[in-house]
Every structure is written in C-alpha cells, then in structure tokens.
Amino acid sequence: MASINDLAQQIQLGLSQWPTGRLPSVRKLASTFEVSTRTIQLALGILRTKVLIESRPKSGFWRIGEIPCVEIPESRPNAENLLARLQAQIQDGEYSWDVALPLIKELAAQWNCHVQTAGKVLEHAVRMGLLERRGRFHYTVLPKVRRKVNSPTILCLGAGAPDGNFRMDSDRESDFWREMGAQAALAGVSLTRCVWNGGRVQPDANVIGIIATNWHYPDPMAICREIAKLKIPSCVWFDEHHWDSFSKDSRIHYHDQGHSTENGMLLARHLIDLGHKHLADISPWHANPWSVMRLRGIQEEASQRACRVDVCCLWGDSEWDRLLPAQTDAVFARSFPQKLIHKIVEGPSGPVRAYLATQLGWNRIRNDMIPLFAKALESGATAWIGANDACALNAMTWLEEQGVSTPGQISVAGFDDTVEALRSDLTSVRFSCSTVARSMIQQILSGSRKATLTRHRGMVVSRRSTSQINSSKRPPG
Asked: In whole angstroms, how large is the CA radius of gyration of the chain?
C-alpha cells in the first residue's frame, strides 16, 4: 500500500506539468511509472479522495475545477408541442389573416426543427381548420360568424371625451380603435361605438360580441361588472393588476398590453446587450401599477445579468394629476381671458385655451421631473429608462440643456412608441394593436365565454437615442 501512496505523491507533484489540466491516460501513466494500470487507478483514487483531481466517463482525469463543461445539445421540439404553440399564436392574433405565414424552411429555422416536422405541423393545422393552403403558402383561416344575424356587429364601449366622442388621449388608444376597425373589416363584421357612462348595456339583436376598454374610469371594474351580466362573448382591454379581483366569476376575455413585467425585461435586456451595466428607471407616476410592473421587469432582468438599477420615482398617478388642474387654474384664466383669445384667433377660443392649459400642465410635469433627472445623472447610470415616452423625451431635452450628449454619454429609452418618439428618434417599446384586435375578434367569433387573460408582449424599436456603451465618454455623475 506504501508504494501506491508514493506513486500518488509523485503524480501529485507532477499535476502542474500538464498545461491543459488534463492528466495523461491511465495506460500512458502506467508506462511512465512502469506499473500496472490497476496500480495507477488506485493511486488516482487517492488523489480524487484528496479532491485534487476529478474525472468524467470517457473524458479522463483532470485537475480539480478544470474539467470542461459539457454542452448538452438542445433537444428539438416535437410536432405536437409545435402545433400547440402555433395554435396559441394564431389565437393570440400574432399572424395576420391576409399575410402568408413564413415558408416551411423559414418556420423550421424559427422552431429549431427538421423541415419535415414543420411540414407535418402545418398539415395538422390545415386539418384542424386553423390554416388554409394556397399553393405553397399557408394563411390563417378567417374566423366566421357563428350566430345567424342580418348584419353581424361588435359593440365597442369606452369612456367619453368632453365633446361626446370616444376618449383617446394617447397614440396607443387611437391605434387600438383604428386597428380594430381594420381587422373587423377583414373578418366581415361591422363596429358600433358607444360611450358608456354607467348604467345597463343593451345590445341589439345584431350584436355578436362586445369589445371595451376600462381606461379613464374612476372605477375601472364597473364596466367589466356590467358586461359580465350579458350572455355574449366579450373582450376587455385593461390593466393587468385588476385580473385577480375579477377573473373567477367572469365570462370576459381580458387583454393586457404594455403593463406586464415582461416589457420591462425586454427593454432592460436590450440596453444590457449594448453593454450598459448601470441603469436608471425614471417615473413621476409610480403610484400607477403599470409603472411598478415595468420597473419590476427591469429589476428582474438586471438582477439576472448582475447589473445595477437606480430608481428615481415620484408617487404620482398619471400626467392628468397636473393636466386637469391646469385647465381650471385661476391665474391661467385671468391671464388668458376667453374674450381676448376669441378676438386674437377670430374664432372659437376653446381649442386654443385647451392647448395653452395642456402646455401649462406639461411645464409643471417637467418641473416635477427635474429632481428625478438630477438624481439619475448623479448616480452615474449610463442608460436611462423613462416610464413612458413622454418621460424619456423630457429626459433627453434636460440632458441636452446640461450639455450631456445622447447617446454618446447616456442612452435613453421609453415605452409606447408614440409619434413623438418616432420624430425624436427615441428607442421605445412598441405594442402591436393589430395583434390585440385580431385576438379579440377571433375570440368573439369563436363564441367562447370562458374567462381568459392574454398578455401581449411588445417589441423594442431601436433608434438613435441608444447605442453601445462608450467607455471613453462616461456620464458626469
């Protein structure tokens, strides 16, 4: 036994000789030390007991900690799982009814499967009535109205504006209703819009379903409770944080767009991939759940990537905290009397006063944001994320006033991909309203009345306001 210990000691002294970390084979060691392979194995067993070496079947013996990791090849998904995924994507509205799906080879590359597997998935989808084949192309099948009515109509409900029309305060709301009309036309149904200010909803005989938003209501769930009383398929575009309180007894298909943590993760991932390890989240409206959810996603992604996030927030609910008081401001009313504006514009003064009041409100919002911007700059973060595009655009303006270049020293990004974001070349998370519209119409035409929640993820639209981190141009914080 002493000779085996001596042999183990000799091998231990020579461990540093092998630069790759891998020891010679058992046969080669046996030849070098002129002993049997069994004796070498016993000596190596002693070194393994001392945690000096480790082994892996068919890989030999290695110095401890230097054995290479084995890359397990990614298993390819089977046709059954791919079919379920495709069905979910069609139901969620990810494929347009008038645009062909990618070709089989392209789908096989996307799905990481064999071309024959992709073809098998498409064949099953055609048999199930999900797709139809036109030559070598596949299209999603247009949904059909199940109820026999003279003029199939979808009733659209939402909050009202002061002029009596639908209230659409953001680009996303306008895009939503515009896309809803386009997708309804493709499906062969018409839309009827109706402002809901409370009370009973009474659809006529041609209404096959209801699509509503619960935005701008003091009690966002009031319209949902009213719709739930009806026995027709209904969809609601709403904030995700209400889901738990109402889903159990509802027949409504809920849709969340832009309020989930995943969208915060998407934007953080984009900036971290550009090399930014220190982010700042800026929100003057952090009392609103959508701001909280986006920040949570940013923090989750940063934590997984060992990055830092500084939080610069105020507990406002929305920009209307400032915009509404500005419209009734006494000093503003005295400074811009209605008769004077009427005389200057030679016409109705209402629109001009509303515009001036809005500018007053936004000036107050900008003043609220300045301490947040100063805190973010002092933190030394190389990438700023605004709670929405308005916040991010104001951050870009303030940085320019401070002599800080964007994106040279600090990258800036936001959410919603508004028209102003496009004009200012701001990187932003865009939410596809056409996807939401298709999904809702599909659910209504299918006749399903089981409560569901569909989360629609956004996509990062990269523009000039973000770039690879430049180590030579650090922020002045």
From this structure: 31
Greatest CA separation for the chain: 111
Residue 344 burial (CB count, 10 A):
11
pLDDT 10s digits, 186-242: 988 999 999 999 889 999 889 999 999 988 888 888 898 899 888 889 999 886 555
- The torsion angle over the Cα atoms of residues 362, 364, 368 and 373, rounded to 10 degrees, is 50
Q: Any idea where the domains of the chain sit in the sequence?
A: 2-63, 79-140, 153-258+434-446, 263-430
Position with higher pLDDT, 5 vs 241: 5
Q: Which of 307, 259, 301, 302 is nearest to 429 (CA)?
A: 259
Chain-centroid distance, C-alpha 105 = 28
**427 close to 413: Cβ distance less than 8 angstroms:** yes
Model pLDDT, residue 1: 45
Q: For 74-87, what is each residue's pLDDT tens digit?
A: 667 889 999 999 99
CATH superfamily of 153-258+434-446: Response regulator (3.40.50.2300)
Contact 130, 84 (CB under 8 A): no
